[in-house]
Every structure is written in structure tokens, then in C-alpha cells.
Description:
By secondary structure, this protein is of the alpha/beta class.
Amino acid sequence: MPSKEKEKLFDTANMLKEKTLKSSDTNFRVVVTGKGGVGKTTTSAVLSHLFAKDGYNVLAVDEDPQMNLPYALGVDKDRAKKIVPLSQNLDYIEEKTGARPGTSWGLFLNLTPDISDVVDKFGIKATDNINILVMGTVVQAATGCLCPENALLDAVMKYIALRKKEIIIMDTQAGVEHFGRALAKGFKHCVVVTDYTFNAMDVAKHTANLAKQIGIPNIYLLVNRVRSQKDIDKARMYIKDDDTVFKSVFFSPYSEEMLDIEPLVTPLIEKESEYMETIKKLKEDIEKNNNSLEKK
């Protein structure tokens, strides 16, 4: 990227951060994270559908460079290809917010950008109540907070103001780099997805502690693909020294059906299953804890 364009990105990101809303009617934001291949995107998609069925307007944010969330939510390939990542649309962000790098903000800065308008420009609608926004990512690995694209994404995520019955659910890329960039800072809920294996549980513990360090108060552990009580006991053994980090722990069963229908999750939503009962309990716990936060 040319140096002038990098300077432009940095400048706009910094301006957005300076003008970010200090508070809004609600801050219902959920980040879903964990090791690769454990079911993060499926979890994000199912939670999005469950909250939408309960009357919420959901902004499903795809921070994973593989961009699988739109497919999981039922968007066909042709429509998904039309999605333009937000990180590639700096000019519109400047137009929308009134930010002009190198100049003053002016008198009519819009502090509450309309989510539906952002989606019209950069995203796509999955259902009447679910909008999808693809954030985009950086080409270079391990660039951390020095990357102007990440600075911009961080600013935009904190810039979106939410009202009652609105929620952001952010599906992240594998690993913990997004915590290093603090992209999830300000979120109130973190769902750590894992399976019962040692490597996945080790990543889950590390992820949970990073979430705690950046101030996320409600951290949930979802252990997928459980086959027996033995698997549950094994998972609990791995987290016995870190179990106080988690607000609650959920175990979902191994399912051949989920493997058959992936990446699409909509066939799961209307069926009764142990898996759906588990995710419904997770959703209810998140909502209950969020209501408690808002009353404080």
C-alpha cells in the first residue's frame, strides 16, 4: 500500500477514535473466538438466528479472512461474492462520518451511523433481522496494531452505536491475534469455542485470559463434539485451574448431521436436538447477563 494511503487510513482511524461515542443505549456485543476448525462460524451463525428469532436486529460481523459466515447464514455464493470488505471502503466511511483526513471535523459530524446503510454499501442481508458486515483483514501476518487497516477496523467497530434489541455478533479468525489488536475491546461477551482435545482446550484457556485482560466481563466456554461423559471429564480436567475465568461452561454433542449440512446452519434451527438445546441455553445465558449489565 502506498505511504500516502497508509497515512490516510491512520489519520481517519485516529479521528474516528477521538469521536467514538462514550456511551449508547446498549452495548450488546458478542465476540466468538477459538482455535481453527472447532465450530466458531457455526456458533456465530446459530446465535445470530436465535437472537433474530427473538426479535433482535442482528449485525453479524465476519472478521475471519476466509469469509465463511455469509455461507453459514444462508447466503448463496453469487451474492456472497458481491460483499466488499469494509477495510476497502475508506472513502465511504469518510463521507458517512464527516471525517476528512488533515482537516477539521466540521459542525455536522454524524456520531450515529445507520447500520442498515453501512450494510447496503458493504454487506448483505441474510434475513429480515440479520445483516452481515465483512470487516476485511490485512495481507501481512502478525502486523499487530501498527497496521492501518486494523486501526481503521478497530475504530469502526467501536463507532457503531446500538439501540435496544440490537446486537453485534462477531465471528473471528482462528487464534488470538484479534485480542492482540484489541479489536474486541469494549465487547461485553466472549464465547470461546473449543473441542475436548488438549490443543484446542489450551488455546481456549489462553483466549479466555486474553479476553479477561482487555476487560470483557462475561466469558463463556462452549465445548463441541462431545461423545461421552469421558470427553466432558477430560475437558473439565484441562480447565480446572482456569474455570473461574468462565461465567459458564456448555457441552454440545458430536453430530454427523452438522458435518453433512455445513457450512449452512439453517436446517438446524427448526429442529429439536441436543446441540440446539445447548446453544439455546448459551443464548439465554448471554441475554440474561447482558440484561444484568444494563441494569447497573
